[in-house]
Amino acid sequence: MAAFWNSFDSEISGCDCLGDSHLRQAPGDSIASVPYISVTMAAKKENSDDEVDEKVKKYLRGEAANLEGVKDKKLKGQLAVREDLYGKSAKTAAKIEKWLLPSEGGYLEAEGIEKTWRIKQESIAREVDILSSRNQYDIVLPELGPYTLDFTSNGRYMAAAGRKGHLAIVDMKTLNLIKEIQVRETVRDVAYLHNELFFAAAQKKYPYIYNREGTELHCLKEHGPVLRLQFLKNHFLLASINKFGQLRYQDVTMGEMIGNFRTGLGRTDVMQVNPFNGVVALGHSSGTVTMWKPTSSVPLVKMLCHPGPVSSLAFHPNGHLMATSGRENKIKIWDLRKFEVIQTLPCHAKTLNFSQKGLLAAGTGSFIQILADFSGSQNYSSYMTHSMAKGYQVGKVLFRPYEDILGIGHSMGWSSILIPGSGEPNFDSWVANPFETSKQRREKEVHSLLDKLPPETIMLDPTKVGTVRVPQKKEKPTKKDVEAEMEAAIETAKDTEFKKKTKGRNKPSKRAKKRREMIDKAKRPFLEQQTQEHETSRKKQKTNPETEMPKSLQRFVRQKAT
Amino acid sequence: MKVKVISRSTGEFTRERSQDLQRVFRNFDPTLRSQEKAVEYVRALNAAKLDKIFARPFIGAMDGHRDSIKCMAKNPNYLKAIFSGSDDGDIRLWDMASRRTVCQFPGHQGAVQGLTVSTDGSILVSCGSDCTVRLWNVSDANVADSDYLSDNSAKPQAVYVWKNAFRAVDHQWDGDLFATAGAQVDVWNHNRSQPVNTFDWGSDTTISIRFNPGEPNILATSANDRSITLYDLRMSSPARKVIMRTKTNSIAWNPMEPMNFTAANEDCNCYSYDARKLEEAKCVHKDHVSAVMDIDFSPTGREFVTGSYDRTVRIFQYNGGHSREIYHTKRMQRVFCVKYSCDASYVISGSDDTNLRLWKAKASEQLGVVLPRERKKHEYLEAVKNRYKHLPEVKRIVRHRHLPKPVYKAANLRRTMIEAERRKEQRRKAHSAPGSIMTEPVRKRRIIKEVE
């Protein structure tokens, strides 16, 4: 295996075109093989080049730095070497994606006059293998209320919570029920913390944190009666919104309450975290969506999305798209870089969720619609539909990470259906591993704790970390402000207490003189500034009449020293 | 219809037996990871802090001499050994691993002023203020056979007496000539008891001498008349001389770029020159607060170590204006000689307090055998720290060094003085006709003239 890697590495480092040994170049050279491509191979190369180019762009993570303006030659040389290195590593990553990834994604293609949205789950189950068809089921638990679910980040475990107090943890690989408990209280939401060992349940009065065994570990009294919980993975923050519209952030490693904000916009139970930058978005009954970060008590963004209340909210994993739905039966897709609507869909949605591959699931009543953008141009159209039995009211739809499965929590229990093409086929063991052993889980916990981000790193544009902050232009204070400052300085000067002198030195005349001196001292900087400004304005005025002088007097105009 | 769903078989993604390695699958897609820059920043911060925690550069002191140590020599064939000569005529061979004396070479009547080893490692040449040059046989067999416990003393192979006291000696690379510095520069052969050649240009004593590693016939010397002179052995007259404002205590050639040399000067700076163009220094290395006594390059040619009269040892980058690292101890007094070990991992300093001290070149380096995974981790942490070392939090930690109080105060004083000079110069310039006052670049400022 090692030998294979070595040979592959040397091939990649040399040239752009695989298999052309005569194009192998020294590692220091930039990839400039264009003049050497023979004409016959040009057409074939073009297609693969385009594909690779697309992927390379993704791995470059932005534009190359502009080195034209750098005057320091040493620095310019060093930066040029670095840019070259970035280009090479992006190309290598693109090639690895093309050739080395173990799995391929799912797909659903209709043949002939068939349409994909008419295909039923039963027909899909007939075509796929047994293991996958096992993943389609309906669990019926009618007495315990509408169910809501949450998956761990590797898609292996699911926590299901029924409104009437039923909490269950299921291992999805083996469909094994690990633990279920009855808390005998209303449970409104459930959220996994950083791994499958801990989850938080928003119960009637306070949220509680439980162990995998069902042991109650913590009772988070400060949060109050919580409606929704969300966990920010990189920061280990548990965000909650409660009945009174208060947003709270708590650090689950040390138990510290980081932020506690009154949104001021009333009770809401629409809350989502944007996985790209860690901001929490709330949808309010006035139709506004506000975005929050833990270090400011004022929302980052307030945008008016719908004429009526916002019923649900979802974020695309790339962080640039947001889908919102309102009571007027419309789903709007927003571009978060420009805060503009890209698309409006006439679809009713009580719950929304994006999958890892960008498919949007919208659930309402007992009907679920899956929308997909086929051309990559963010133009969403109907891909699949699923209708459940009449009495089932969909409460929550959630895609399972790294699998082509959609989990649905409804009033009669929960279900799971197959949606080909929704999950990411290739996982990265060091990000999320569905086949994790306990040792790997413990190591990962330690590493992620070492990499825990401080709450100050949450910002709308996370790529700004490490960049230069542009200096803000200071606005000149207006005349009124200057006068007000002067008045304030004079007041403070008047208020100063003088030392009581004895032996005849405390004469009233002397005291009055000293007071007048203090006031003059306070006034002096302002007066100096005023005189300076007068002088500059006078100088400016002087230059103007020069140009207006009549022609005969031009020779007497003072020339500036050149 | 055509349909395919993701289905992973457990066997492909998990290991078969418990003695197999766990399988790791990578997907480098940026959308799977969020906030990469913030994570890198946190890692850089932690790496800087860990660096400081593991920074323990001092390894040990080699005790034994009874007077201050004036000179040291490296044996290019034997990594573990170092020779040192002191002011009471005592020359010792040290084994750095056990930090003990292996062998002593008694014989000099006065101070030993210079030590050097021939390139094949067979002859040690020492010169002293008793006007003698002594040659000792130090081939590998001799060194390896020696017993640590018994105080082995060796007899010199040859003793040559000459007219005046010597100040320094250096051996030609891959040749059998060596040169001594004193009242004049003498070139000797191993077998002749009189110098083969003599160079005399200038009226003052030559205090240091160094042969060029790339061109075996070129040597550089520095003299008490504040000059640096380059000689060529093939021509019987000296080649070039540059006179500076203050005298140069020591010179070292860059082993990877043999046309460049760095001079340790009395005015607390080191000046790097290109030997072909002596009218301007290539780089001025400023950080010491007192005269720089000795300088030695690392075999990689990328760093050099300097020891100074202000009781500190500093390590500089070959092209950097300020030091990367500073080493000091309460017990280490004036540092008179420094050497960079031949494997570029250690720095040895000999000082006034009769001790040789062994330091690590990279203060937080892990010594010993480093596993490949550990090495990769160290490299990654180094790279991520370098990427974010300009940000204020990380910079504060990376830059922080504890300085002894006298050095700190002296540095502040120097800074205020230089700043005041600069401000006055700027004001003079601003208030005079433009172009009448020209500031000389720092690299040229300390050079008086160049003589052919």
Task: Report on the architecture of this protein.
The complex is a heterodimer of chains A (562) and B (452). With 562 residues, chain A is α+β, with helices and mostly antiparallel strands. In chain A, 25% of the residues lie in helices and 28% in strands. In chain A, the strands form seven sheets. In chain A, strands 2-29-28-27 form a four-stranded antiparallel sheet. A four-stranded antiparallel sheet of chain A has the order 3-4-5-6, with no helix packed on it. In chain A, strand 12 and strand 13 form a beta hairpin. Chain A is globular, with a radius of gyration of 33 Å. The N terminus of chain A is likely disordered. Chain B is built from seven helices and 31 strands. Helix content of chain B is 18%, strand content 36%. A five-stranded mixed sheet of chain B has the order 3-4-5-6-10, with no helix packed on it. Chain B has a five-stranded antiparallel sheet with strand order 16-17-18-19-31. In chain B, strands 2-30-29-28 form a four-stranded antiparallel sheet, with no helix packed on it. In chain B, helix 2 packs across helix 4 and helix 2 packs parallel to helix 5. Chains A and B meet through helix 3, strand 1 and helix 4 of A and strand 1, helix 1 and helix 2 of B. Strand 1 of chain A pairs antiparallel with strand 1 of chain B. Chain A: This is BING4 C-terminal domain-containing protein.
